[in-house]
Automatic annotation (TrEMBL):
Biological classification of the source: Eukaryota, Viridiplantae, Streptophyta, Embryophyta, Tracheophyta
PANTHER family linked: SODIUM/HYDROGEN EXCHANGER (PTHR10110), SODIUM_HYDROGEN EXCHANGER 8 (PTHR10110:SF165)
Domain Cation/H+ exchanger transmembrane positions: 4-400
Annotated localization: Membrane
Transmembrane segment boundaries: 12-31, 51-69, 81-100, 112-132, 184-203, 234-254, 266-287, 307-328, 340-358, 378-403
Gene Ontology terms: biological process: potassium ion transport
Gene: nhx8
Record membrane topology: Multi-pass membrane protein
The organism of origin for this protein: Arabidopsis thaliana (Mouse-ear cress)
Protein name per UniProt: Sodium hydrogen exchanger 8
Keywords noted in UniProt: Ion transport, Membrane, Potassium, Potassium transport, Sodium, Sodium transport, Transmembrane, Transmembrane helix, Transport
Catalysed reactions, semicolon-separated: K(+)(in) + H(+)(out) = K(+)(out) + H(+)(in); Na(+)(in) + H(+)(out) = Na(+)(out) + H(+)(in)
Length: 710
């Protein structure tokens, strides 16, 4: 109900959940147990072990967040993330610890003050990720804040554990501190990579089994967290973050078509459920900490020190961003002053901080940590979580608006006009097709328009907006925007080719990476995605010598064929994707100057790929033939799969029949992927003589590079 009611408002969904939790907790702990079984349930949830709370919810939330991040952008922003998560956490911890020690009247020693500073020193990814996704911040900004929050959280937990051990009387010399930090950091990275490698290797043996694939990702995240946190004694948060990023880098193309969609929906739903429960529970814990600890929280000075601590938290965040700003501007994608303001203001705290405060409270009541100190920790942490979520979370969208970071550029507005014009044309075509039939007669177009509000503003002003790009069309901003859209179309074509079996997973990863690198350069140069592929695609002269009769065919196959196959896959996929993207751009923008400019850049990019395929065709035509054979076989099997599904859909086949036929086709697909047609190297003249189809040079060329349809 809250998600529905507050959709489209400036109040984030997570803030509403926190208020609901506070309301439920206040009802139970402020009404003398009048809620019956509901109150009993609230008390059971409130009494959850903090370690169990983290172990249940964090693996889902952290894996979903890190797995959905853009790997290329992570690489570019890694320097900024490390700065904010390393020196940034230390600066924040010591700033907060010093301010608490010097201004708070609780007579805490330096270790205890720094413990609270470490607990509050890092932003919480659970809160930040939920907020950013809801507000629709830019992809670059989301990646930076999301990645920084994930790394921040892992580092801050390690810092918290370090000071917690010191407060509880453990050895605190420099040698033990460095050993603890190194073990936690490198141990977490090692375990995350180990689980990532094992899981990705396992996924290679799972074929078209969506349930098994999702189960591997889910179980890997929980097993990795548990192994790191409970068995190895290192940071489970850093472990799951490394695991998710490893999956994003090496396993994204392992999920194709329906499996990819199912995986996305599963993790989206799992994260939604976990977020909902975590923030409601956080609200209950905050209410209990305020209402149950009356001796602490109802004193006026405690409330005033809570608000003072909130100011300290914001001040420490300003200091971190301010001190690191010169370095942040010079690394990654850079950082302007507007983005630095959002980065400062989006330092939310959430369930992780609360869980750590709960663990402090549970461990209090001894000579090292008094029960009053534990209660104060929970009260102050709960208050900070509430204030950052309610104040910062609710005003971030307003701040984005004031800084004009949520407005559309002139180029994007023009694209919207293009799209609206095409929408009207599409609606007219649909009306022509469906507006009149022999059973029901004709439809009334004005009434149709009245019920489609998105088309109301378009009627009566159907001027072709393609003309809008003719005047001043070569503006650099416009060209950059169209290049980005063109490259997005190229990447979408690669995904489609992966689903159709035209390219392998390894080839897809290489092609996707080339597009990501080209997207970074659209503002300074023409299309350049071939630049990232060029080192993998070249035809040295000694290949032709190896093809001579002097060298044994088996040795030739071993030396060059596998490398040529990969290069041919890359070249043919590159040419096909660019051809598809050019066609789509021409359909959308017509013959405008800007479209012609980008299309010409694309054609120039493809020259080397065409030349490479020509060289292969002249020296090793069998390589192209085998690649096309594989593609056609995969295409035919996919087509048969779709045909069987369609027969089931129209009711001509029943469940058992569908299952039998589907298993047969899937078995053939599995055999094709694991044992693809291999290349044999007969004499070229014998090959052409024995196959009349190949006598025609143009037919052979067409077959080889796949210009004709299967």
């Amino acid at each position: 109900a809250c998600r529905y009611l507050f959709n489209g408002t400036r109040v984030p969904y997570t803030v509403v959940l926190l208020v609901i939790g506070i309301f439920l907790g206040s009802l139970e702990y402020g009404t003398k147990h009048n809620l019956g079984k509901l109150g009993h349930g609230i008390r059971i949830w409130n009494g959850i072990n903090p370690d169990l709370l983290l172990a249940v919810f964090l693996p889902v939330l952290l894996f979903e967040s890190s797995f959905s991040m853009d790997v290329h952008q992570i690489k570019r922003c890694m320097g900024q993330m490390v700065l904010l998560a390393g020196p940034g956490v230390l600066i924040s911890t010591f700033c907060l610890g010093a301010l608490i020690k010097l201004t708070f009247p609780y007579n805490w020693d330096w270790k205890t003050s720094l413990l609270l500073g470490g607990l509050l020193g890092a932003t919480d990814p659970v809160a930040v990720v939920a907020l950013l996704k809801e507000l629709g911040a830019s992809k670059k900004m989301t990646t930076l804040i999301d990645g920084e929050s994930l790394m921040n959280d892992g580092v801050s937990v390690v810092v918290f554990q370090l000071f917690f051990k010191m407060v509880m009387g453990h050895n605190s010399d420099w040698g033990s501190i460095i050993k603890f930090l190194v073990q936690n950091s490198f141990g977490a990275v090692g375990i995350g990579l180990a689980f990532g490698i094992a899981s990705v290797f396992w996924l290679k043996f799972i074929f078209n089994d969506t349930v098994a694939q999702i189960t591997v990702t889910l179980s890997a995240s929980y097993f990795a967290y548990y192994t790191a946190q409970e068995w190895a004694g290192v940071s489970g948060i850093l472990t799951v973050m490394i695991l998710g990023m490893f999956f994003a880098a090496f396993a994204r193309t392992a999920f194709k078509g329906d499996s990819h969609q199912s995986l996305h929906h599963f993790w989206e739903m799992a994260a939604y459920i976990a977020n909902t429960l975590v923030f409601i529970l956080s609200g209950v814990i905050i209410a209990e900490s305020v209402l149950s600890g009356q001796t602490i929280s109802y004193k006026g000075n405690s409330w005033s020190f809570l608000f003072l601590l909130y100011l300290y938290v914001q001040l420490s965040r300003c200091v971190v961003v301010g001190v690191l700003y010169p370095l942040l501007c010079r690394s990654g994608y850079g950082l302007d002053w507007k983005e630095s303001i959002i980065l400062t203001w989006s330092g939310l705290r959430g369930a992780v901080s609360l869980s750590l405060a709960l663990s402090v409270k549970q461990s209090s009541g001894n000579s090292y940590l008094s029960s009053d100190t534990g209660t104060r920790f929970l009260f102050l942490t709960g208050g900070i979580v509430f204030l950052t979520l309610v104040v910062n979370g609710s005003t971030t969208q307003l701040l984005l608006h004031l800084l004009r970071m949520d407005t559309l550029t002139a180029t994007k507005k023009r694209i919207l006009e293009y799209t609206k014009f095409e929408m009207m044309k599409t609606a007219l075509k649909a009306f022509e097709n469906l507006g009149d039939d022999e059973e029901l007669g004709s439809a009334d177009w004005p009434t149709v328009i009245r019920h489609i509000s998105s088309l109301k503003d378009l009627e009566g002003r159907q001027v072709n907006p393609h003309d809008g790009y003719e005047a001043g069309s070569l503006d650099p901003t416009n060209i950059m925007d169209i290049r980005i859209r063109f490259l997005n179309g190229v990447q979408a074509a690669y995904w489609e080719m992966l689903d159709d079996g035209r390219i392998t997973q390894c080839t897809a990863n290489v092609l996707m990476q080339s597009v990501d690198e080209a997207l970074d350069l659209v503002s300074t140069s023409s299309l350049s995605d071939w630049r990232g592929l060029e080192p993998r695609v070249h035809f040295p002269n000694y290949y032709k010598f190896l093809q001579s009769k002097i060298i044994p065919h088996k040795l030739v196959t071993h030396l060059i064929v596998e490398r040529l196959e990969s290069a041919c896959y890359i070249s043919s996929a590159f040419l096909r994707a660019h051809r598809i993207a050019r066609q789509q751009l021409h359909i959308f923008l017509g013959n405008s100057n800007i479209a012609s400019t980008v299309i010409n850049e694309s054609e120039v990019e493809g020259e080397e790929a065409k030349q490479f395929l020509e060289d292969v065709r002249d020296s090793f035509p069998q390589v192209l033939s085998v690649l096309k054979t594989r593609q056609v076989t995969h295409y035919v099997l996919n087509h048969l799969n779709g045909y069987i599904k369609n027969l089931e859909k129209v009711g001509l086949l029943e469940g058992k029949e569908v299952s039998h036929l589907h298993d047969v086709v899937q078995s053939d697909l599995k055999k094709l992927l694991r044992h693809p047609p291999s290349l044999k190297l007969p004499n070229v003249d014998d090959l052409i003589t024995s196959n009349p189809l190949l006598k025609d040079r143009s037919s052979f060329r067409s077959l080889a590079i796949g210009e004709t349809d299967a």
